[in-house]
Every structure is written in structure tokens, then in C-alpha cells.
Amino acid sequence: MGRAFQNRKESMAKTSDQKAKVYSKYGREIYVCAKSGGVDPNGNLALRSMIDRAKKDQVPSHVIDKALDKAKGGGGEDFDTARYEGYGPGSTMVIVDCLSDNPNRTFGDVRTCFNKVKAKIGTQGSVSHMFDHSAIFSFSGDEEEALEALMMADVDVTDIENEEGKITVFAPHTDYGKAKTALTEAFEGIEFDVDEIQFVPQNMTPIDAEAAEQFERFLDMLNDLDDVQNVYHNAEY
Q: How far apart are CA 107 and CA 110, in angstroms?
């Protein structure tokens, strides 16, 4: 499962080079996270994680502060989460997570992306059952010590990898808070290379060069949509 996650991260890496889009998406997600769970990162673990990720992706402080100030005001946009599933080029499986203030517009935009590459948008649950909704943490440390700390915290670890001292832990997304707290307490000054909740494909689907070209075009169209926050897939190039 870890290798599948790494493959997906590598194939999606190029989509993070559009700085303006990255800033906009982080700003929106920080705003929603702060509005729903409070603007104090010390009392809102999800917000603290989101801010840490934004800083690692070199999102300027003024973008983060603006999103927090907007959440403090109590007004502003009313965003809802929306998730769309379907089949992409080469019989791949795709999950598209969005934050939208107009679900009808967002669904239409996402469906158009599917249609343009002759892909098929499906119903809720059509492909998500083939993904694990996982909390993922990657850091430098000791595998046995990490596993012991997680077990003591009653975290249901689904997978753990150790590559030359780089530990990657996979756990159910519902155990995110418990897992992060346990690791933070077990390793003083821990710095996470990955600290996210992701959909990790259970199996990868190899695609040929022609399908890969179509799939790249498909990803570009999706990531150009302001409402799209994350795209998960099982394509293997």
C-alpha cells in the first residue's frame, strides 16, 4: 500500500507547480477548517496540520493570516465539501474532492472534465471502496518505538514501512488525531515529511503511453478548477 501511495504522489507532483492555485486552495481549506473547528491551531489539530503543510509548500504567511482573519469574522463564503468518483482514461479509478459554494456548478465543471477525455463520472461509492481512507505520517525515527507508541495509544496501524530510517505509518483516517498525538509525544521535536489524510489505492492500474497522455490532460483540467482541492487515482505510468 505504501508503494501505491508513493507512486500516486510522484505522478501528482507536477500539479503543485502552479503557485497561485496552490495558495488559493490552501487559503480556502484553512478558512473552512478554522471556521468549523476554531481559529486557534493549538485547539484545532486539523488546522495546525493544515498550516504546517501550507508552510512546507511555501505558502506565504499573509495568505494563511488572511484565511484565518476571514474565519474569525464569522461571515464570508459558505463552502461545502463535495466528492465525485468515476473512471478515468485507461480504466483508472479517480476520486475528486472539492470545496464549493455552488455544488451544481462544481458538479457540472467536474463532469465536463470527465466527458472531454471520454471518461465516465460515477455515483457515490462507485470506486471509493477500492481505496483506503488513510492517515499517513512519514518521519525519521525508530520503527519499533513508533509501533509501540501507536499500539499504546490504541491506534489501528494498517501498515508501517521503514526505508533507511524513514518511517511511514498508515492508519485509518478516524485515528488521525490519536496517531499524531502518540507520535509527537514519543519523538521529541518530530518533524513530519508527510502528515495528511489521503485516499490510497488498494491496487494500481498500469496505463500505456496513449492513455497516460490523456490522463495527464484530464488531471490538468481538474486541477485548473478552483473548486477542486485534491485528486486521488490509481494510475501507474
A: 5
Cα separation, 136 vs 5, whole angstroms: 9
For 94, 132, 203, the CA distances from 129, given in Å and listed in that order, are 11, 7, 11
pLDDT along the chain (237 residues), means of 10: 52 55 87 89 89 90 90 73 95 95 94 96 95 95 95 95 92 94 94 92 95 95 91 93
Set of cell numbers at residue 160: 508501517
Is the sign of the CA dihedral 34, 37, 40, 43 positive or negative?
A: negative
Collapsing DSSP to helix, strand or coil, 109 comes out as helix
Helix-helix angle 19-37:61-73, to 10 degrees: 30
Q: Given its phi and psi angles, is residue 19 left (phi above 0), alpha (psi -120 to 50 degrees) or beta?
A: alpha
Tell me the pTM: 0.80
Question: CA 92 from chain center: how many Å?
Answer: 18
> In angstroms, rounded to a whole number, what is the distance separating the alpha carbons of residues 40 and 82?
25
Name the 3-class secondary structure at 160: strand
Residues listed for the chain = 237
Contact 135, 179 (CB under 8 A): yes
Amino acid at 46: A
Side chain identity at residue 3, one-letter code: R
Strands 80-88 and 120-121: antiparallel
Nearest to 146 by CA among 159, 133, 131: 159
